[in-house]
Amino acid sequence: MIYSHVLDQLDRRHAERVSDFSLALARCAGLLESECQRIAGAALYHDIGKLGMPSSILNSAAPLTAQQRDHMQKHVEYGLSLLSVYDSEDMRAAKEVISTHHERWDGSGYPKGLVGEEIPLSGRIVAISDVFDALMFSRPYKPAWGIQRAVQFIKDQAGKDFDPGLIGAFQRAVASVFGKDVGLHCTEKSIDKQGYSSKGLLDSSPFFNT
Questions:
Q1: Which of 22, 138, 164, 205 could be a cystine partner for 144, CB 3.0 to 4.6 Å?
Q2: What pLDDT is recorded for position 114?
């Protein structure tokens, strides 16, 4: 694995939380454990291409201009380029996630505008996990959202941004990770909570009440 020496140059905690939640979501979707682990490992790399992005874009508190958005979207290309010399099974899985986690169920995503099940399942899972984490934690351009608001957003985007067939698994994964009564609990073993210290967050972070 090569991620450890590059994640510190990005947002390591975001990458690890997205990995953790992707693992929970894949498990709650009923995937084989080996595939769940592969998706979780691949998710660590989903933003690696942002190493090629200027900090003025990454840390912008203002809405990006059309030119800046176009430049930001190139992080997919940069990420694939960074991993192009690696060809292990794990690295192929990582490249699949990098190239597809910004695709959207209705075809409005990038880079290829894939529609529905044209998007690999790994990309559909990490897409949900990435957006969910981005909503729940503060960014330069937004405060953190509460968990109920973030869950409702994901549900509202089913069939548009996200695979509607994964929404039930998503709600079970949220319940499994956070111990929150937002859906049926996943029957699989709960994920390691090093990324999401679920009960501590729910008890002490004010943004869960917004």
A1: 138
A2: 98
- Return the residue matching tokens 């111990």: 179
Looking at residue 135, its pLDDT comes to: 95
Residues with Cβ within 8 Å of residue 32, at least 6 apart in sequence? none
Give the angle 18-21-23 at the CA atoms, nearest 5°.
110
Model confidence pLDDT, tens digit, residues 132-187: 999 999 888 889 999 999 999 999 999 999 999 999 999 999 999 988 555 444 44
Phi-psi region of 159 (alpha: psi -120 to 50; beta: other; left: phi over 0): left
Distance, CA of 155 to chain centre:
15
Give the count of beta carbons closer than 10 Å to the beta carbon of residue 8: 9
In 3D, which of 178, 204, 202, 182 has the Cα closest to residue 190? 178
User: For residues 157 and 145, what is the distance between their CA atoms, to the nearest angstrom?
Assistant: 16
DSSP letter for each residue of 119-156: S-HHHHHHHHHHHHHHHHS-BTTBPPPPHHHHHHHHHH
Would you say the C-alpha torsion 177, 1, 43, 144 has a positive or negative sign?
positive
